[in-house]
Design a protein that fits this description.
Distance between the termini: 10 Å
Order of helices and strands: HEEEEEEEEEEEEHHHHHHH
Number of helices: 8
Shape: elongated
Length: 385
Amino acid sequence: MKKRLLSLALTLAVLLLMAPMAFAADYTFTDRHGKERTVKDGEYSFATRVVEFTHGDPWTSIQKNQDPSVTLGQPDYKGESSGADLCLGAGGVLVLEFNVSIVDGEGEDIYVFEVGPDAEATKVEVSSDLKTWYEVGTAKGKTTGLDLNGKVPEDGRFRYVRLTDLREHPDSSWPGADIDAVLALNSKPVTSTWAESEIDRAKEYGLIPEILEGAVMTEPITRLEFAAVSVKTYEKLSGTTALPATVNPFTDCSDPEMLKAYNLNVAVGVAPDTFAPNKLLNREQAATMLTRVFKRATMPGWSYEGDAQYPLQFTQPARFADDALISDWARESVYFMAANQIINGMGENKFAPSNTTTAQEANHYANATREQALAIAVRMVENLK
């Protein structure tokens, strides 16, 4: 087994260079100077939620310009008749949340789309926690880019942007800046601090499937999302492209990535005709599915039905304190992953294989998160040597 793992490790360096990368669609727009600009992976780089809006005084009486939700997503202002912008009012404040973390990259990092006949300025600030704010400059009317460099802590990641109108043109029909959209020019996925490096490497290795592009990585992962991660991991380990099953036995899901995972024998249904794509995945299920990925990629002839004929050879690590809660069908996979430092415990030497109480289920105690799933995939690529 050690020789097989070593051989796999020697081929990984080549595979990492050969495999295609997974990226979201780029976004192209024309800036205030009439220059066309393209933001890599920009499809998901716009604000997704209004955290807070306090209109200024005076404020517009035109109702169609009073809705803060029009600032979400891509800019769509097409003139005064469209109404697709928010009037802040003199001194108004708008706080927006992103599903990506804004970072200091090359050139400008944030772009504010301010529209309308008057060029009205706003103070722009960023935050990672809605408590500590860093002023990054002034959006001086119309579309304006701002650079975080030298204005925020090094390697900072910011999910929130606050715009405060600077009280220019308070006597117009639309007093205050008119905001159409805000774009993160340089961004990374939203992750926990511990996962930042591994998620960056998952992006580099092409392990992030399209279904998780623009997703908040700290949230629990579904069976369908994990199936897609499993497919990417298999393709990375094997150097081959997975093909979808030609016959779909499931009545509740027809996603191509699920059909690929099913065809690989990596993902199976919860019933003969049910895949349950939106059901959350627990940690022992994650360990088992990715162990199947490893076997499929490295053990010729392996299949789900014949799995018992392909035992794993590894040094058994110390048992987890909650070993009795690990399902029999998952135990070998859990300890194989632990032995190779691919899936670690959750503290107090517990693995947290599955939710056993209503409270655990409500708190997602044993549910694998998106960032955990991708970290597992990265460690499979890097640690099995």
